[in-house]
Amino acid sequence: MNALLVCIAEGEMLVQRAALDLMVSYIGLSEKFLGQQEKEVLVQACFHLLLKKEYQLTRRIYTFLFGPPDAEGKYNISEDTESALQIMEKSFYRLLVEE
Prior knowledge:
Structural class: mainly alpha
Distance between the termini: 22 Å
Number of strands: 0
Number of domains: 1
Helix content: 55-70%
Radius of gyration: 13 Å
Order of helices and strands: HHHHH
Number of helices: 5
Strand content: under 5%
Mean pLDDT: 83
């Protein structure tokens, strides 16, 4: 967990992309082995990366949060992503309160 956070906070974009690829491939928000607080911390780190406005990072973050896009390139929010939305809401609130 700490290694992922360090990689995401790293200034090198290739390291950030690799960390996000790992998260997309093996660490979904629906996985049970991560606790609620750990998921929120990961999402907070992803929110910080969205500020860079880098397409490749943004695409990977959206895939991590919402799952893969459909054929039209749109991300569908369904009942499967309901828990992810709650995690994002809590993470965003914590960002606003803490910073």
